[in-house]
Amino acid sequence: xxxxxxxxxxxxxxxxxxxxxxxxVTALSxxxxxxxxxxxxxxxxxxxxxSWQQPTIGNYCxxxxxxxxxxxxxxxxxxxxxNYAFDSEQSLxxxxxxxxxxxxxxTTDVKLQWVYQNRQxxxxxxxx
Length: 128
Hints:
Radius of gyration: 24 Å
Number of strands: 6
Distance between the termini: 91 Å
Helix content: 10-25%
Structural class: mainly beta
Largest sheet: 6 strands, mixed
Number of helices: 2
């Protein structure tokens, strides 16, 4: 009985129930996306691979999100890879943008973490 109703629903609304969901393209990714330094406030060093992929061929550029420094551009490409020598004492963000329209397409972050945080000991009393 229920099977018959289900079949009628599928026949009545085939487009709405069986519509394809468009696959989301990974626009920009950073591997690794976390850099670990020994102590808080120290520089972290690692090799980060920034890769991107777009559904259409175009002119794309990769830049630092805070300083707007353009690191690499690709002409008439659909995907690209950039090796970045990460050397920073704070987290960084990167942007992929269309060089024809200057529209930002995607962003990614490389976050900084520490093994040991700087904690000052509280002195309860002093001699002088």
